[in-house]
Write a structure and sequence with these properties.
Elements lengths: L3 E6 L3 H12 L1 E2 L2 E2 L4 E7 L3 H8 L8 E3 L5 H5 L4 E4 L3 H13 L3 E4 L4 H4 L3 H12 L3 E2 L8 H10 L1 E10 L8 H5 L11 E7 H7 L4 H10 L7 E6 L6 E9 L2 E9 L10 H15 L7
Parallel strand pairs: 1-4, 1-6, 4-5, 6-7, 7-8, 9-11
Antiparallel strand pairs: 2-3, 9-12, 10-11, 12-13
Bound molecules: nicotinamide-adenine-dinucleotide.
């Protein structure tokens, strides 16, 4: 069978894990059997591509730092993976869909933060008959949430707990005059809708966006953000109540070595999505 040809935009923490998985067809010694090949890499920082290429067995033939000649290189691939930034979603995903290519989006926050983008992507993918894959990212429980949403859901609540240092540089925390280093016990920094959380805590945007899209939207999805000096990892707890009953999921995320703001699980979820694309039996919703 012909290999699925892949282009990757963004060679940072997630992109590097994805590329190495495709290149070696394994992760941590576990075989994947993806049947994929890397055709192009794009990153606005060429040194990131260079660093990654040194760790690949087969270097892709097309290397670029921007979207010039995108129409030409899109002809070389079947699937493009965006793992760069919110801005990259419009810049690369829309042209790829217009060319009838399948896409995977990691910067899922863009689908809620940029008005009209979700609808535009939905309409082009429908017209062109191509799939848009949004991996679960740094959370679990999206399968149960999707199933529950079919029968009706009353509430979705996300609580994110991080060590206080994880909120350094956050404008909302600064404006409220919170001294992160004097926090000695759990302190709630925010409680409100996912829509407001996206604006005030952009570093949490992807998790809130995935849950909102899979469930009941960003206004109805509730978010609590807690600075917790006893937390060593970023912890996400999700509670969903619906006609099916109640779901509770807790994820204690190990940060990625290359980018401590990104959870290792996010990269693994993208690779697991690649596996489900290439494997004939699909387990899980
Ligand atoms: N879905 C989730 O749960 C989840 C979890 C973590 C991260 N993310 C998102 O995935 C994306 C990648 O995360 P990461 O940790 O790998 O980030 P990273 O900063 O380690 O890497 C991103 C790379 O993309 C490049 N880049 C950014 N914008 C670009 C553009 N317009 N054109 C070309 N290259 C560009 C950067 O130079 C960088 O090398 C981010 O948007 C992040 O918010 C999603």
């Amino acid at each position: 069978m012909a290999k699925i040809r892949v282009g990757v935009v963004g060679c940072g923490a997630i992109g590097s894990e994805i590329c190495r998985a495709i290149d070696r067809d394994e992760v941590n010694g576990r075989e994947l059997d993806l049947g994929m090949e890397l055709k192009f890499l794009i990153d606005k920082h060429p040194e990131k591509i260079e660093r990654l290429c040194k760790r690949l067995r087969k270097k892709p033939s097309i290397i670029k730092s921007d979207s010039t000649e995108l129409d030409i290189i899109l002809e070389e691939v079947d699937l493009i993976i965006e793992c760069a930034s919110q801005a990259a979603v419009r810049e690369f995903v829309i042209p790829a869909l217009k060319r009838g290519k399948e896409v995977m989006i990691l910067s899922v926050g863009a689908l809620l933060c940029e008005p009209g983008l979700f609808e535009e992507i939905e309409s082009i993918s429908k017209e062109k008959g191509c799939k848009v894959y949004v991996p679960s990212g740094a959370v679990a429980g999206i399968d149960g949430l999707k199933s529950g949403a079919i029968g009706g859901i009353q509430s979705v609540e996300l609580t994110t707990r991080k060590p206080p240092s994880g909120f350094e540089g956050n404008e909302y925390v600064k404006e409220r005059g919170i001294d992160l280093f004097s926090i000695k016990k759990k302190e709630m920094l925010f409680m409100g809708s996912a829509k407001d959380a996206e604006r005030l805590f952009p570093e949490n945007v992807n998790v809130a966006a995935s849950l909102s899209i899979a469930g009941i939207g960003s206004e109805a999805t509730k978010v609590k953000i807690v600075a917790d000096p006893s937390a060593e990892e970023n912890v996400h707890e999700i509670v969903v109540k619906g006609e099916f009953g109640k779901l509770f999921v807790r994820v204690e995320n190990v940060p990625s070595i290359a980018n401590p703001k990104t959870s290792y699980l996010a990269a693994l979820s993208a690779i697991a999505t690649l596996k489900s694309i290439s494997y004939s039996i699909r387990v899980g919703t």
